[in-house]
Amino acid sequence: MRGSKLRAAGVKGIGAYLPERILTNADLEKLVETSDQWILERTGIRERRIASKDETAATLGTRAAIEAIKDAGINPTDVQCIITATITPDYFFPATACLIQDAIGATGAAAFDLLVGCTGFVYGLVIASQMVSYGAFDNVLVIGADVLSKFINWRDRHTCVLFGDGAGAAVISQIDDDYGLLGFDIGSDGSLSKLLRIEAGGSHRPASLMTVLEEAHSLTMNGSEVFKFAVRAMSDSTRRALQACGLDVEHVSLFVPHQANMRIVRAAAERLQIPIERIFTNVEKYGNTSAASIPIALAEADKLGRIKRGDIVVCTSFGGGLSWASCVLRW
Ligand SMILES: CC(C)(COP(=O)(O)OP(=O)(O)OC[C@H]1O[C@@H](n2cnc3c(N)ncnc32)[C@H](O)[C@@H]1OP(=O)(O)O)[C@@H](O)C(=O)NCCC(=O)NCCS
Question: Going by CATH, does the domain composed of 181-330 fall within 3.40.47.10?
C-alpha cells in the first residue's frame, strides 16, 4: 500500500478512560425482565460502565486523549489534527472533536467527527495514518468516545443489556519504517442501515413531541440479523486486510476485535481458525462501548504486556451503517 516516498505511520501513544460507575447484570435484573445467566450466556457481559450526568463524549474523550498524549511523550500543542469517532456527540454540531481540541489545549488543531458507529475508530486510524504518511500532519489524535447509556431505552431488554460507556484514544505519528499500519479494509452496506439505528432527531424525522413520546430517540436493533452480519463482516474483512499486506492469519500475534458479544467473537474466530488465546477480549467488564471498544482494548492489551514491539496486531470491527473495518498493525 505504501509507495517508497511515503512515511510509515502508526500508534505512538494509546490511552483509555472508563467512567467509575459500574452497572452489573444483577442491577439490570431490577430494571427489565432479564437474568445474569441470560446476559452472560448470550453475550459474555458481566458488567458495564455508565457515565455520570455530567460526563459526555467530549469529557470521556478528553480523559482518554490526555492519556494517549502522555503515552506518546508529546505535548497537546504537537497535535495538529483531532478525529473523534462517536455516534453520541455532545451536540449535533459543533463537532465533539472541537470541544476536545479546546479541553486539551491543542491550539489551532484541525478537528472533526466521524459518524460510523462501532467501526469509527478503525476508520479514523486509517484516515489519520494516510494524513501522516503523506506528510499532511505529524501527529493526529484519533479518539473513539461513546455514551450510549444516554441513547438507550432502559425498558428495552433487547438492547439495554448490551452497551456501556467509555473512550479510547491513539496518537498516530510517523514511526520506524516497516512498522505501523501495514494494511486495512474498510467498507459498508447501506442497504442494511435499518438494522441498527436511532430513528428520530435527524432531518429524516426531526424531534417532536411525538418522537419523544414514542422513544424514537433511542437505539433500535435487529439483534439476530446484526449478529449474522457481524460474524461474516469481521472474518471477511480481516482476511482482506491481511491480504492487502501479504500476511496470513498465522502471522498475527494478537487479534483485537470489536467487543460487542463473546459469541460473535468466537464465531468469527472459528471462521478464521484463530485460536482463542490469540484474541484479546474485555467485553465481560465493559460491554459494547461502540467506537471506544477497540482503543480501550488496545490500551488494556498494551498495558498488560499482551502486545510487544514488532508484533502483528489485527483490529476488526462492525457497526452501524452497516459498516466494517479492519486494520493490520506492526506494533
Ligand atoms: C442481542 C443478542 C444478544 C440476542 O441474542 P439471541 O441469541 O439472538 O437472542 P434472540 O434475540 O433470538 O432472543 C431469544 C429470546 O431471548 C429473549 N431476550 C432478549 N433479550 C433478553 C434479555 N436481555 N434477557 C432475557 N431474555 C431476553 C427474547 O425475547 C427471545 O425470546 P422469545 O423467543 O420468547 O421472543 C444477539 O442477537 C446479538 O448479540 N446481536 C448482535 C448485537 C450487537 O452486537 N449489536 C451492536 C452492534 S455494534
Answer: yes
- Which residue puts its alpha carbon closest to atom 18 of ligand 1? 158
Amino acid, single-letter form, for residue 157: R
Residues acting as catalytic residues: 118, 258, 288
Q: How far apart are CA 85 and CA 128, in angstroms?
A: 12
**220 pocket-lining for ligand 1 (C-beta < 6 Å):** no
The pLDDT value recorded for residue 5 is 77
C-alpha cell of residue 143:
479518539
Find out whether the beta carbon of 251 lies less than 6 Å from any atom of ligand 1: no
Domain boundaries, the chain: 9-177, 181-330
Residue 10 DSSP SS3: strand
C-alpha cell at 72: 506518546
Least Cα distance to 110 among 70, 89, 140 occurs for 140
Q: Could you report the per-residue pLDDT of 230-269, keeping only the tens digit for each?
A: 999 999 999 999 999 999 999 999 999 999 999 999 999 9
> In this predicted model, what pLDDT tens digit does every residue of 87-115 receive, in sequence order?
999 999 999 999 999 999 999 999 999 99
How far is Cα 48 from Cα 287, in angstroms, rounded to an integer? 5
Query: Which of these, 161, 14, 146, 176, lies nearest to 86 by C-alpha position?
Result: 146
Q: Please tell me the class of the 9-177 domain.
A: alpha beta
Ligand 1 atom closest to the CA of 157, numbered from 1: 23
Four-point Cα dihedral 70, 72, 75, 81, nearest 10: -120
Angle between helices 96-104 and 57-72 (to 10 degrees): 50
Atom of ligand 1 nearest to the CA of 43: 3
With bands split at pLDDT 50, 70 and 90, how would you rate the model's confidence at 4?
A: low
The DSSP annotation for 259-277 comes to -S-HHHHHHHHHHHT--GG
